C-alpha cells in the first residue's frame, strides 16, 4: 500500500486523490517518508479523503492521439469560471470557448483561480499540435501556435458536451496530415450563406482546416465580380457575404481554397462571351471548353484570378485543369486545327493540343503564383501525351482513375509530386448518383479508407506517405435538385466525421464503427 501512495504523490495530481487504508496515511506528503515507522506510534489519522479511479481517455472526434491518465475529479465548467490567456493573440480562441462553455472571458491574466481554463503559447513542433493538462480543478491548453490552441479548445468543448467532464490527465495531440478538407460545389447548386456558415462551424469543431469552393462551372458563376459582372449568375453570393464566410472560416482556423476551373468547365463565362467558345473543325461548339488559342481567353480568366485573389486571402488555390473536351476526341489536332496551329507556334513543329493545354495550366499558375499562393490541379490535368510538363510547384489533387488514360497515383508520387487525396471511390458525394456514383457512407470510410488509399481501394506504398498532404471529402451537385440543403447536411454528417478521423490519425481506430457512430450521436 505504501508503494501505491508514493506513486500517486509522484503523479502530482491535486487534492484528495487517494483513500487511506487500515490507518495507512491521510494523503499528506509526509506520510510517504513514514512508510517504515511503527503503526502503533502513528498519531490518529483524519477521515480518508475521496478516492478517484484512474481517468479514461477523452471521447472525441477525431480521437486524441495520446492521453496520460491520472487520478482526480477532472474539470467541468462552473458558474463564475473564467477563460484567461497568456498572449493577447489568443483572444479570439479565448472568447469563443468562453462563450461556448458559459464562462467569463478574463483576458490576459497571470493569476490562477479554481475552475480556470488557461490558453497559452509555448513549445515547438507542429503548429497544429497542443497539450491540454487537466489538474487541480483547472485546465491549461498550450501549443506552439494559435491553431493548436484552438484545436485544444475543440477537444475541451467535446469533452464537456452535455454536462460531461474533461478527464484528469494530460492530452498530447496533433494531426497526421496537414490538410483536412471539405470541398463544396456551389456552381451547380447555390448553397445559402447560412448553410455554408453552419458547415464551417461544424468543420471547425471537427478540426478540419480547409473549405474548397468550386464556384464557376458550365451551369453558373456564383460570386459577384467587378471585373466581369456580365458572367455572374442571378443567384450568387455577394462579395460582402463571401467576406463574412472567409472571416468566419479564419476564426475557426479554416482557409478557403477557391477554384475557377479552366480551360474546361467554363460554360457560364462562355455564355457571356460566345466568341470564346471552342468549336471543332465543323464549327460545332464543345461544351464548357474555352478556345485556348485566343489570347482573350487567357485574359478573362486571369482577370478573374487576379480579382478573387483579393477576396480569398488564404495561401492555397485550385487551378482545376480537368476534363478539357478537346482532348477526349481520337485526333485533337484534326478536330481542332486552330489549337494545333497555336501549339506549333508556341512549341515548334511537334507541338500538339496536349502541349497547348499544359501551357494554359502553367500560364494560369503564373498568374496565381504572383499572389503568393500554393497551387493544386486535378490529376487529369497532368497530361500523359504532353512534352510540356506542368510547373513543378503545382500539387496533384487526385480524384479519379476512371478517366480515359488516367495514370496511377504512384506515377505522380515517384516523380516527387505532392498529392491531395480526393478519392472518388470513397470521398465523392455526387447529388443524384450519376455515372455509377453512390453516396459514400461513414462506415466504409471509417473501416476501409486511409490517406494512402488514393485511387480505388488499394493503398500506395508507405514510402510515399510523406508526400500525401491530406485529403478532402467533396460534394458535387451534378443533379442539383436531387437533395435539399438539409438532406446534404444530413447525408455528409457521418462521412465527414469518419474522414477527419482518418486524416487526424490514419491508424486503426480504437472504437468500432457502432461505437464511433454512438459517440457522434452523443456529441451532436
Low-confidence stretches: 1-43
Number of strands: 18
First-residue to last-residue Cα separation:
43 Å
Helix content: 25-40%
Rough outline: elongated
Radius of gyration, whole Å: 28 Å
Spatial ordering of strands, largest sheet: 8-9-10-13-14-15-16-18
CATH secondary-structure class of the largest domain: Alpha Beta
CATH topology of the largest domain: TIM Barrel
By CATH, the superfamily of the largest domain comes out as: Glycosidases
Domain Glycoside hydrolase family 20 catalytic: 180-485
GO biological process, one term: carbohydrate metabolic process
Region (Disordered): 20-87
Keywords: Glycosidase, Hydrolase
Explained architecture:
The structure is a single chain. The protein has 524 residues and is an alpha/beta fold. The protein has two domains: 66-173, Chitobiase/beta-hexosaminidase domain 2-like (Chitobiase, domain 2); 179-507, TIM Barrel (Alpha-Beta Barrel), CATH 3.20.20.80. It has helices at residues 2-11, 91-101, 146-159, 193-205, 239-251, 267-272, 295-311, 332-335, 337-347, 353-369, 409-414, 442-448, 485-504, 513-523, and strands spanning 66-69, 82-85, 104-108, 117-121, 130-135, 138-143, 169-173, 179-185, 210-216, 255-262, 277-279, 285-290, 316-320, 374-378, 394-398, 419-421, 428-430, 468-476. It has an eight-stranded parallel β-barrel with strand order 8-9-10-13-14-15-16-18, surrounded by four helices. The chain has a seven-stranded mixed β-sheet with strand order 1-7-5-6-4-2-3. A two-stranded antiparallel sheet has the order 11-12. β17 (428-430), α12 and β18 (468-476) form a beta-alpha-beta unit. The chain is elongated and about 85 Å long. The chain starts with a helix and ends with a helix.
Amino acid at each position: 500500500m505504501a508503494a501505491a501512495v508514493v506513486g500517486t504523490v509522484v503523479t502530482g495530481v491535486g487534492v484528495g486523490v487517494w483513500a487511506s487504508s487500515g490507518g495507512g496515511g491521510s494523503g499528506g506528503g509526509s506520510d510517504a517518508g513514514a512508510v517504515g515507522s511503527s503503526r502503533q506510534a502513528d498519531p490518529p489519522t483524519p477521515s480518508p479523503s475521496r478516492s478517484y479511479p484512474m481517468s479514461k481517455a477523452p471521447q472525441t472526434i477525431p480521437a486524441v492521439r495520446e492521453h496520460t491518465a491520472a487520478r482526480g475529479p477532472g474539470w467541468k465548467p462552473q458558474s463564475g469560471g473564467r477563460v484567461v490567456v497568456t498572449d493577447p493573440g489568443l483572444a479570439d480562441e479565448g472568447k469563443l470557448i468562453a462563450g461556448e462553455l458559459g464562462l467569463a472571458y478574463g483576458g490576459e491574466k497571470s493569476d490562477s483561480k479554481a475552475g480556470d481554463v488557461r490558453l497559452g503559447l509555448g513549445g515547438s513542433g507542429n503548429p497544429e499540435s497542443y497539450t491540454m493538462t487537466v489538474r487541480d480543478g483547472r485546465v491549461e491548453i498550450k501549443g506552439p501556435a494559435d491553431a493548436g490552441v484552438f484545436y485544444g479548445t475543440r477537444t475541451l468543448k467535446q469533452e464537456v458536451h452535455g454536462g460531461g467532464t474533461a478527464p484528469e490527465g494530460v492530452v498530447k495531440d496533433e494531426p497526421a496530415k496537414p490538410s483536412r478538407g471539405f470541398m463544396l460545389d456551389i456552381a451547380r447548386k447555390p448553397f445559402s450563406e447560412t448553410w455554408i456558415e453552419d458547415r464551417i462551424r461544424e468543420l471547425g469543431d471537427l478540426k478540419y482546416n480547409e473549405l474548397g469552393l468550386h464556384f464557376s462551372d458550365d451551369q453558373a458563376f456564383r460570386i459577384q465580380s467587378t471585373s466581369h459582372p456580365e458572367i455572374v449568375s442571378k443567384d450568387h453570393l455577394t462579395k460582402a457575404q463571401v467576406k463574412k464566410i472567409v472571416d468566419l472560416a479564419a476564426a475557426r482556423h479554416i482557409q478557403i481554397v477557391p477554384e475557377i476551373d479552366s480551360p474546361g468547365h467554363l460554360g457560364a463565362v462562355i455564355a457571356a462571351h460566345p466568341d470564346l467558345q471552342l468549336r471543332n473543325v465543323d464549327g460545332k461548339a464543345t461544351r464548357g471548353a474555352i478556345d485556348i488559342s485566343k489570347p482573350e481567353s487567357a485574359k478573362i480568366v486571369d482577370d478573374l484570378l487576379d480579382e478573387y485573389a483579393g477576396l480569398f486571402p488564404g495561401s492555397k488555390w485550385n487551378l482545376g485543369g480537368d476534363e478539357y473536351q478537346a482532348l477526349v476526341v481520337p485526333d485533337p489536332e484534326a478536330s481542332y486545327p486552330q489549337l494545333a496551329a497555336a501549339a506549333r507556334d508556341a512549341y515548334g513543329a511537334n507541338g500538339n493540343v496536349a502541349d497547348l493545354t499544359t501551357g494554359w495550366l502553367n500560364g494560369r499558375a503564373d498568374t496565381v503564383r504572383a499572389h503568393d499562393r500554393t497551387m493544386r490541379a486535378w490529376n487529369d490535368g497532368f497530361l500523359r501525351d504532353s512534352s510540356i510538363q506542368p510547373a513543378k510547384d503545382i500539387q496533384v489533387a487526385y480524384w479519379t482513375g476512371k478517366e480515359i488514360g488516367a495514370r496511377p497515383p504512384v506515377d505522380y508520387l515517384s516523380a516527387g509530386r505532392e498529392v491531395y487525396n480526393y478519392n472518388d471511390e470513397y470521398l465523392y458525394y455526387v447529388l443524384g448518383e450519376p455515372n455509377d456514383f453512390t453516396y459514400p457512407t461513414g462506415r466504409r470510410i471509417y473501416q476501409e479508407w486511409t490517406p494512402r488509399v488514393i485511387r480505388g481501394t488499394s493503398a500506395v506504398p508507405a514510402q510515399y506517405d510523406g508526400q500525401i498532404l491530406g485529403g478532402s471529402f467533396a460534394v458535387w451537385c451534378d443533379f442539383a435538385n436531387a437533395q435539399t440543403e438539409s438532406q446534404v447536411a444530413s447525408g455528409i454528417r457521418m462521412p465527414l466525421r469518419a474522414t477527419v478521423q482518418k486524416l487526424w490519425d490514419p491508424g486503426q481506430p480504437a472504437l468500432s464503427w457502432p461505437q464511433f457512430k454512438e459517440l457522434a450521436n452523443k456529441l451532436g
